[in-house]
Amino acid sequence: MAARTRKPVVEVRRSQRRRRTVSAYRDGERVVVLIPDRFSRAEETEWVERMLARLAAREERLRSTDDELLARARRLTARYLADHADLVLPASVRWVTNQNGRWGSCTPDDATIRISHRIQEMPDWVVDYVVLHELAHLVVPSHNARFWELVSRFPKAERARGYLEGVSAAGNLEMAEH
Known about the structure:
- This protein is an alpha/beta fold.
- The chain is built from 5 helices and 6 strands; from the N terminus they run βββααβββααα.
- Helix content is 40%, strand content 19%.
């Protein structure tokens, strides 16, 4: 059996201060799952399985390639910007690691879009929002009312903006939408 298919060693840490939230992270070869102390053994088992699945999904997203990101951009264009499909033709959409002040950026002149690697572990709907935000810049380069109308076609746009603002505040980051 390959190492990737083996179930990882799991360490469960119970906390009396933790009330409802459950989280997990990888620490070397093992996975640490943090749960409230009051959870029963059945709840612990259920949440460990749930968190292992979430962690695996997150890690799979990290392996996402630029080609997959471009395919995602095409799906978002077809769904939310179909009436501008002739303008929304990115030359490239790629992950970058040198973008420390923005979640994403777009250069309309050459139709290139760069998405910060920082969002790779975020929920899909947040990644979709950032990609759609940058795609909208291929139609409207500035952040004017017409631009925001295009972005607001995404049903979770306000929720995603709030999520990103929360991440920025919690991490004391000065990240901007561009």
